[in-house]
Amino acid sequence: MYVAVKGGEKAIANAHRLLAERRRGNPGVPALSVDQILEQLSLAVDRVMGEGSLYDRRLAALAIKQARGDLVEAIFLLRAYRTTLPRFGASLPVDTGAMLVERRISATFKDLPGGQLLGPTFDYTHRLLDPDLEGEGEAEPAEAGADPGEGPLARVTDLLGEAGLIEADPDGEAEPADLTREPLSFPAGRELRLQALARGDEGFLLALGYSTQRGYARSHPFAAEIRMGEVEIEIEVPGLDFAVPLGRLTVTECQMVNQFKGSASAPPQFTRGYGLVFGHAERKAMAMALCDRALRAAELGEEETAPAQDAEFVLSHADNVQATGFVEHLKLPHYVDFQAELDLLRRLRAEHEAREAGKEQREAAE
Amino acid sequence: MNGVEQVGKERRGVLSVLARADLAELADGIAAIAARPEMETLRAPEFGLVMARGRIGGAGAPFNLGEVTVTRAAVRLSSGEVGHGHVLGRERERARLVAALDALWQSPAHRREVEEKVVAPIQDRLAHADAERRAKAAATRVNFFTMVRGEDE
User: Distance (Å) from the C-alpha of residue B119 to the closest C-alpha of chain A?
Assistant: First the structure.
């Protein structure tokens, strides 16, 4: 049982002043602006938005500054902020097929209609530190001379789907479960699992996805398509007979396809795992797609042998705000709790010593 | 398509441009419109959340992806038109100006001016930005060649 403590106000206030001083660092170095974080640490901003489950670049950048770059702390700040706002409603589902694509690659098809666009990627870099970035030089503008072609780029999975070699998307327009309204419960439908995965910790999901590749729930995935870019978001407003556009979001989508030898009810075909994340967050989208596929084991009649296939295990531990809350609460004073344990231990020790002493006396007497 | 649907589609197109405009574009735009009627606030700008949804697999059943911050506002012209403003983020003045321009666009006396002085230039800028983004992405289009492996021979 946790028993609260009181007092310590002065020390706590001083600790927070010290924190503010350390956050600022050397006053001889110019302070970091929120705009600088927004523009130049944009992938950190994206991660905080995704796992904070709140798309607001400026707030995420502010949270990163306030948290001294501790991204889990920043995610916590964003989650706390969202509880102060009313919910206006839900958007219409975004159409990733109509995305203004900035990056789109496939590891399964060399020659895609519309082609493969590498976009702004770390792939194929040499991972050598660049001393030039120590300076404040300007980047060379990107090449912009190429013809982008017409219209949106079809999803790769739709190309395979036309031939019936890949399972179709599950249809239905039912109101999806929402874990911000109802606590997570099991069994969890796929839509609820995807919501939990979309806001789950990148490191945790990455490790689980990796475990499926190493043989814990082996499913041999291919990255059929990864795309990143802007999608329009719109909402229905009472009294208006058209959906009102709110603007555009940057999202990353990953379509994994996996071998499936078929079952009593389904022919041999490729099955799919899906990842969709706020911002440019490719590693997260891929890990999410691997976990989504692994969590479909029961639905596809696969043997459940691995942690990544256990929805209760995965979804109950994927949220880094919950995880950090429970782990870090161990730092709070547990004096009464611990005193009780100490008393118990002293009693057990006394009994143990009395027993030992009794044994020695008996042995000496014999 | 009937007349009501057509007007809805056009109004949606205007809002889609205004929602992505920056504050200066909206403020300068509305200032350029002559003889603006009186406006009353129906809903003062307020911050809130919209749950963004995706679809399973890209085209399947909907799921909740995460929330976005939104600012909304509503105004009414003295001639009766009600304008709605919704913008991403927390920007009261932007939402209010979108609502005002939406109301003015519905007023037959102001529609053309709103389209020509406000919407068209913003639309041009956005189209340019999109074209540049697509051209830069297109410059990274890659053609991989599959190598013949020794053991295949």
Answer: 15
Residue ranges covered by each domain of chain A: 9-82, 96-119+151-324
Give the tokens for residue B113.
């001016």
Contact across the interface for A247 and B19, Cβ inside 8 Å: yes
Note the pTM of the prediction, 2 decimals.
0.93
Tokens of B82: 């009600």
Chain B residues within 8 A of A54 when measuring between CB atoms: 49, 66-69
Asked if B48's CB is within 8 angstroms of A86's CB, the reply is: yes
CB neighbours of residue A215 within 10 Å: 9
B20 touches chain A (CB under 8 A): yes
Helix (H, G, I), strand (E, B) or coil at A322: helix
Q: Which residue has the higher pLDDT, A262 or A362?
A: A362
pLDDT for residue B148 is more than 90: no
Q: Residue A232: beta bridge partners? A: A248
More confident: A285 or A334: A285
ipTM: 0.93
φ and ψ of A166, to 5 deg = -130, 145
> To 5 degrees, how large is the angle CA A52–CA A53–CA A55?
100
Q: Residue B16: which H helix or E strand, with range?
A: helix B3-18
